[in-house]
Design a protein that fits this description.
Length: 270
Amino acid sequence: IKFTMLAGSAAAGDAGSAPVPVGIDTTDMDDESWVPRSKGGVQKSCNVIRSEIEKFLTSGEMNQTRFLGEIRCNSNSYGRFMKLKGKDNGYQNGVYWGAARFFEVRKRQATLATAQPADAKRKRAAEAVSSKSKKAKMDERITQAASVDLSDSLPIFDSVAEVKRKITKFLTETGCTKAAFLRALGGVQQNQLTSFMKMPAADKSSMISCQPGAGNKIYVLAYRFFEQLRLADKAPKTAARKKNEELCGPDGFGLRHDDGKRWFVKGQKW
């Protein structure tokens, strides 16, 4: 089944579409029959677009407000689209088409940049030097962090969401691979990190005692790692950190996924 663009939508290439960088051919995208496709040639599902949006916003390259401005959609449409479940649920929402066009333009822009052989070669050489420099600095920081001695019963004063944000930022800005990061945490498994990063947002009313992901060992190990980095860098505590210390007390955030309560229906077997 092919789901096509809604006629007259802002994503359909009319006057409401976001500006396109010079040199990028998007004439095919202006046709209402255009659909975003994967490398395999199939139309990208709503879940794929939602995943691309989450990954892009998590990278920190652009905040949500600016992103919505780029795709010409409002926050209400965005909220509805992101809350929908199911791979085919959301084609009728303009966020699907606006985001699909946005990511397609970025992909074509990257392809155009690599189409210049000489420039691309020089760019790769410069990036290689930069990558080596980043890796050397990153290795040195990890070594310095490991030398910082912390108590085994270290209380945690960052929420699960904040630790996830720090992980994403660290991997993005330092060039550290996930494998190297996991080794720095003590050799934990990739599936544990994946599970932790996919945990839903916590209920703010109970997050001091329990948060989705708080029972995952990545939470404790990653917080410890970033605290070692902070101390190695002689960086001060942030205002948010100080506020958490006041809210949580000396014990910090709890290490439970949930409150342990369960629903039971009388007369039913489970």
